[in-house]
Amino acid sequence: MTVTEPAAASSRDYDSLPSTSPLGAPLDWKWLKGAKSEWGVRPKIGPRGLTMLDIAVGSYGDVPEHPTHRSMAPRGADVDPETPDMGYILNNKTDVWAENVTELYEEAVARQWSATRDIPWSELPELPDDIEHAMCQVCTTLTEVEMIAADLPAKWMWRMNHDFIEAKMFLCTQIMDEARHAEVFRKRALANGGGLLMSRGSSEGLLRTILEAKTYHQATALMHLLGEGFILDIFRMGELIAPSPVEKRMFRMAMQDEARHVAYGTMHIRYAVEHDPDIAEEIHEALDHGEVVLTQFGTNQDFGTALAVLLGGGVDHVESSGFALQAEMQRKQFTSYLARCERAGISRLERTKLPLDLLGIDPATVLAN
Amino acid sequence: MDITDITLYRAMADELNAHPETFTVLGECDMVLALVMRGDQEAGETDFAVRLRFEGLRCEGADEVAASEAPLADYYLDGPLAKWQAMFDDIVANGAASGRQTINSLALLATSADDVRLRGDDPMGTDKFSRFNQTLQEYLDGAARVAVSA
After folding, report:
1. Is A175:A153 a contact under the CB 8 Å cutoff?
2. Chain B residues with beta carbon closer than 8 angstroms to that of A269
3. CB pairs under 8 A between A and B
4. Is a pLDDT exceeding 90 seen at residue B150?
5. Of chain B residues 18-77, which have a CB less than 8 A from chain A?
6. How many CB atoms lie within 10 A of CB A115?
7. CB contact under 8 A, A267 and B108
8. Who among A237, A258, A259 is closest to B108 (CB)?
9. Residue A264 maps to which CATH number?
10. 0.90 cut: is pTM over it?
11. Is residue B1 included in any domain, yes or no?
12. Rounded to a whole number, what is the distance in Å from the CA of B22 to chain A's nearest CA?
């Protein structure tokens, strides 16, 4: 909750201040007079401190649809007309914004964790050889794919207009989250005497598709809706595949982070499509291709068989139960993705490239999800 | 342990609020959710619903509400009373939810109204189930400590 107080006029005039420095350089005291800023606006500090939501008061809380400046000047400052153009290309609010992005930034800051300290590594039990290999393979693939969600925003952030600072700040937290995910999965692969195992082209194909998206809308649809949504569901499955409480903890903590990223992407796409329906086709085109490469990734023989071994509880059960459970989980993953698209305002049910019949997905289930 | 008694949920809130050190690592959390437990009407059971309000590192409210009010929350978890009973029994028996009795696994594996399903109309609200999942799980696991001290 925030309140504002009426702007108070400066009680002093500073007209007697010198117009040149001791070295003779010209001085401008405009900043001291408050210029156009809303001097006197005072956010109310909440019970947990001063949040970004608390300071979004007066004009400082107004995020323009089409910023007039393309500099790094803070939104709300008086900007010198000589300030250079930074070359931003994402200059419309629909390009990057989501209604929940400020809340998500604060949440991310409040819910950071440490892969060094908050995972009970010393409690890792000795595991059967097949289970340890399977966990190491899963962690190898996850280590490989996690950093795409850091590289991708890094590729685009410097092209985003600085008036959308909250969106850029949120993406910074996403980058930190993904660094931690790469860290925690790499650590798990190495922590129990196993190691990093197979990497194949099907993973790289998906990553390259995301990284090379032509627009940020396409990039975020591919990354947040498709890729991270898929990985979020794997993390949610973590409780089913984790052989010990250590891995359970790892997946649970990563799940919460990943859910923030998906929440941003879902609401960003929704905001963009609501304000500019023409964007929908651009996103559909990206997802047409993305779904094909995601299916290739989802059927990756190393990652897929390792998941099946973990779900079945070992190679001896992979045929009797592992593959069936994996198929059930895939059905849930793709159903969850299609439901997310519905929530984002991009219905894929009539257009999806996913083999719904083969996966056993009933569109009615998607709509009810 | 009567899981349709609102005092249980208030005791779990007190348990959570008494141990901020447990929740500090999970971080602050702002969400309102409801747990809806559908009674077996043929067996003479009635529905029970509780609305939980989390703010910062605390659970600030546990109130009994009508099941029809559950959609007013950010999200709600809706399932047969017997499934909820099995979850709480597992928590009490193991000190914390185990196996497929975690709230995440229950919702993930749900296929019909015979399971505990995640529901909600607002995507920003239902997102909170995963974003704050471990805070909710820690709260629910508190039932084990409440049961021991009862």
Report:
1. yes
2. none
3. 65
4. no
5. 25-30, 56
6. 20
7. no
8. A237
9. 1.10.620.20
10. yes
11. no
12. 12
Structure tokens at A109: 């800051």
Measured distance CA(A229)–CA(A246) in Å, rounded: 23
Most A CBs within 10 Å, among B106, B124, B141, to test the A interface: B124
**C-alpha to C-alpha distance for A366 and A364, rounded to whole angstroms:** 5
Within B18-132, residue ranges assigned H as helices are 20-24, 81-94, 103-109, 123-131
Asked if B127 lies within 8 A of A252 by C-beta distance, the reply is: no
**Residue A6's pLDDT band (boundaries 50, 70, 90)?**
very low
Contact B48, B8 (CB under 8 A): no
pLDDT in tens, A204-243: 888 999 999 999 999 999 999 999 999 999 999 999 999 9
Q: B103-124, pLDDT tens digit by residue?
A: 999 999 998 899 999 999 888 8
Q: CA-CA distance, B36 to B116, in Å (whole number)?
A: 9
pLDDT of residue A35: 61
What per-residue confidence (pLDDT) applies to A37? 65
Kindly identify which residue of chain A lies nearest to residue B104, measuring between CA atoms: A236
Closest CA–CA distance from residue A37 to any residue of chain B (Å): 32
Query: Chain-wide mean pLDDT for chain A?
Result: 92
Q: What CATH number does the domain containing B47 carry?
A: 3.30.1050.10
- In chain A, how many domains are there? 1
A362 falls within a domain: yes
Structural domain includes residue A113? yes
Q: Do B134 and A112 touch (CB under 8 A)?
A: no
Judging contacts by C-beta atoms under 8 Å, the chain A residues touching residue B132 are 256
**A75 CB contacts (<8 Å, ≥6 apart)?**
A60, A63, A64, A67, A162, A163, A165
Structural domain total, chain B: 1
Contact (CB<8Å) A113/B27: yes
Quick check: is A252 in a domain?
A: yes
- How confident is the model over B41-64, as a mean pLDDT? 95
Domain extent for B101: 6-149
Residue-wise pLDDT for B77-87, tens only, equals 999 999 999 99
Cβ neighbours, 10 Å, residue B115: 15
Please give, rounded to a whole number of angstroms, the shortest distance from the CA of B122 to a CA of chain A: 9
The answer to whether residue A63 sits within a structural domain is no
- Mutation choice for A interface testing from B108, B111, B132 by most A CBs within 10 A: B108
Given a contact cutoff of 8 angstroms between Cβ atoms, the answer to whether A322 and A312 are in contact is: yes
CB-based contact A287:A348 (threshold 8 Å): yes
ipTM of this complex prediction, to 2 decimal places: 0.91
- At residue B78, the 3 state secondary structure works out as strand
How many CA atoms within 13 Å lie on the side-chain side of B36?
24
Residues forming a β-bridge with B50: B35, B64
Burial class (CB in 10 A: 0-12, 13-18, 19+), A28: exposed
In this complex, the residue of B100, B123, B134 whose CB is nearest that of residue A252 is: B134
Q: What are the structure tokens assigned to A43, written together?
A: 């956010």
